Amino acid sequence: MSILPVSANRTNTPLMNQRMLFQLNADQLALQHQYDQLSSGRSVLKISDNPAAANRALGLNRGIDHGNQMVRNANSTIGYYDTADRSLASVDNALITARATAVQGVETINSQDERDAMALTIRETINNVFAAGNAMFRDQQLLGGILNDGNAYNFVDGDIVYSGRDAIGQTMLGSGELSALNATAAESLGTNNVFLKGEPLGAALDYNTRLVDMRGGIGVAPGVIELSGGEGSVQVDLSNAATIGDVADVLSKVQLDGRPLSVTIGDDSLKIAYADDLPGTLAIQDTKGSTLARDLSILNPGGLTAPPIIGDRLTPRLTTNTKIEDLAFGAGIDLSGGITIKQGNQSFAIDFSEAKTMGDVLIAINRSGADVHAELNDTDGSIQLRALRSGVDYSVGENGQSAAQELGIRSATENTTLKELGRGRGVVLNPNSEDLVITRPDGVVLSLDLEGAETIDDVIQLIRNHPNNQDTSRILVGLNTIGNGIELQAPPGAEPMSIRQPQWSNAGTRLGLIPEGQSEAFGETVGSVNQIAGEDYMPRDAGGALDTLLRLETAIRDGDIPEIERLQARVDADLDRASRTRGRIGVWTRNLQDLKDASETTVIQLKDQLSNEVDADLATLISELSQRQLSIDASMRIIGQASQTTVLNYL
């Protein structure tokens, strides 16, 4: 701070007054600036006060805002996790109650009133799990998918239908780290479970097969390759190729030493040769940075292998764009008959007559009205079906032809093992006598011992090859052409065909040929054929906690002890699933709390740095303020003295 000197030499009065007023004005402005600093507590009030400090302060403020937003995100997400934890705690308690009730339900001395009371207890657990599945935090589903704006679960005709989505929200925490915001119904309650995983369909290579879909989904990277016929070489730029057809088109236009190339796309291969089919040298290698020739398995450096050069095992991935005619490794499949999906007492016939691609097949299934969701399994190129309705049995069978079998999604086939029957309980056989007795309409008896039979096909072959079943009146056996199950056909006779399971054996019931609770079934004459059309021997559960509880309620009310025992194990699995999900949310909460604490600490540190940059030092500021006031007082005294000057001041 400085005071302009008072001129000691002779000068005119206006100039002297101007100098003094300038000094006074400067002091007053500086004093006002110090008052502003004192009232705000800031030493930098605008960028021009200290450009370097102001620039650093802007960066620190951005960091503080970011940290505060991270803390707000963490607080909101912790609230989401806490609500989800309470919902899953409700699920845990409900399943524990159901487990205890199931243990009580296996007692054979329970009266019907007691069973009805226990069934009501299970109904209460169903309602608790149902409510937990529909729980929301603010306006978002906790378990039914972050994008679902309504109830994820709804009661429909006594069953529970899931209409949610397995969408997972994410929130940014810490230093740009994304954290899952919600658990899904599939991982917490087992809903939207895959009840049927199909067989691999084996897609063939097609002109339009994308390079990214080859090698089982690993893909082929476009690039530049070099070809040589021995005398000269040609570099071929395939960096813009998108499909195997693009590769074939470009290579077909190449000539080596005046000889054009021929390129052929096979079901799982790419064949490169000279168009004249004559021998010669055909060297193929990647240029620097390219892996195209290696990926296509056509690498032939130095032309050591004589043409044709064949790149095989290209293994295209099954996609929604894969054509039906390219399935079964190029042989195609016949979908003309369509398929039948049964859920409980409902049956849905699905027509594929207009389907050209796998996408069309999936759309036809998903729009059939059945409560299933069909999707492709990218790992092995198969169809998998998810169940959306809890409390019913699912079955996928034929509709007159073999479409379900060819799509690999028939739920009961010849390869089904006898151990899988009865929902995994297997078949009980007679230790010392026959297990099935079939009596033809002409009275011929076929006694069948199933000891050693492992699959449905083994049982079918035992009937076909029975010594008493080799004449013109033989019984024909195979799988039903509509739906699922085993079908027995015999010519009509004086008596209907019959099938019986002797004492101790339940083979006929497990095979679906004899109704539950009975020991014998009789054929019906349809047209000119006497037949027994068996029921599906391999129905599928929808799966999940709600499906288990709905079945358990029915089993307890009916006193079905074997079913209750089976469902006890499922309740344990459902409880384990829900508990593991709850534990995972607990880990998320702990990690999130740590990230929140770190963000809060960072904000505190940034605020401390910001304070050092822009906050005023009050002691220094007050000292300077006092000096500035003294300066103003001195300036005003000088101005007062100067205003009283006389002619003597200039002598």
Query: What is the straight-line distance between the termini?
Result: 33 Å
How many individual helices? 13
Indicate the low-confidence ranges by residue numbers.
none
Radius of gyration using CA atoms only: 42 Å
Which structural category fits the helices and strands? Answer: alpha+beta
Helix content: 25-40%
Strands, count: 30
Sheet with most strands: 5 strands, antiparallel
Query: Per the principal axes of the C-alpha atoms, what is the gross shape?
Result: flat
Strand content: 15-25%
> Overall mean pLDDT score?
87
Write the layout of secondary structure elements.
Blueprint: H1 13-40, H2 51-105, H3 112-133, E1 136-137, E2 140-141, E3 153-156, E4 159-162, E5 170-173, E6 177-180, H4 185-189, E7 194-197, E8 224-228, E9 233-237, H5 244-252, E10 255-256, E11 259-265, E12 269-274, E13 283-286, H6 292-295, E14 309-312, E15 339-343, E16 346-350, H7 358-366, E17 372-377, E18 382-387, E19 389-390, E20 393-399, H8 403-406, E21 436-439, E22 445-448, H9 456-464, E23 476-479, E24 482-483, E25 486-490, E26 498-500, H10 507-510, E27 520-522, E28 524-526, E29 529-533, E30 540-541, H11 545-558, H12 561-614, H13 618-642
Antiparallel strand pairs: 1-2, 3-4, 4-19, 5-6, 7-18, 8-9, 8-13, 10-11, 11-12, 12-14, 15-16, 15-20, 17-18, 20-24, 20-30, 21-22, 21-26, 23-25, 25-29, 26-27, 28-29
Characteristic terms for this protein:
651 residues; alpha+beta; 37% helix; flat
Describe the 3D structure.
With 651 residues, the chain is an alpha+beta fold. Helix content is 37%, strand content 19%. It is built from 13 helices and 30 strands. Strands 15, 16, 20, 24 and 30 form a five-stranded antiparallel beta sheet that branches. Strands 10-11-12-14 form a four-stranded antiparallel beta sheet. A four-stranded antiparallel beta sheet has the order 22-21-26-27, with no helix packed on it. Strand 15 (339-343) and strand 16 (346-350) form a beta hairpin. Helix 3 packs antiparallel against helix 11 (545-558).
